[in-house]
Amino acid sequence: MEKARARVFIGGRVQGVFYRAFTRELAYGLGLNGWVKNLRDGRVEAVFEGDKDTIEKAVKECYAGPPGARVSDIDVQWEPFVGEKGFSIKY
User: Fold this and answer.
1) pTM for this structure?
2) Terminal C-alpha separation, the chain
3) Using CA atoms, how far apart are residues 2 and 52, in angstroms rounded to an integer?
4) For the chain, N or C: smaller number of CB within 10 Å?
5) How far apart are CA 8 and CA 28, in angstroms?
6) Whether residue 70 lies in the annotated active site
7) Which domains, and CATH codes, for the chain?
8) CB 6 within 8 A of CB 60
9) How far apart are CA 56 and CA 42, in angstroms?
10) What are the pLDDT digits (tens) for 34-77?
11) In the 8-state DSSP scheme, what is residue 8?
């Protein structure tokens, strides 16, 4: 399987609705590494590393988000794999 890294920017109503916790649990469940954080412009940024097919599945799940979230758009930027360890919420 192809190892990949994706930087994902999620827009909409995604702050104050436990979106980062949702993303961390999603990554844990799929066996992905990386991190997630809120951006000052109201979006959430996440980095997923792992198998490309699994990352694509995670991005699809990000459209749903947790209850209370309303995702309006997602921008995915593919980057070179670097070997992140674990998955964390950045503050």
Assistant:
1) 0.96
2) 32
3) 6
4) C
5) 17
6) no
7) 13-70 (3.30.70.100)
8) no
9) 23
10) 999 999 999 999 999 999 999 999 999 999 999 999 999 999 99
11) E
Catalytic residue among 5, 7, 13, 20: 20
Two tokens, residue 44: 């959430």
Distance, in Å, from the CA atom of 69 to the CA atom of 55, rounded to the nearest integer, reads 20
Residues 6+ apart with CB under 8 A from 10: 19, 43, 44, 45, 46, 62, 65, 71, 73, 74
- 47 burial (CB, 10 Å; 0-12 / 13-18 / 19+) is buried
Q: Which residues pair with 87 in a beta bridge?
A: 34
The angle subtended at Cα 54 by Cα 50 and Cα 58, nearest 5°, is 105
* Token duo for residue 15: 């702050």
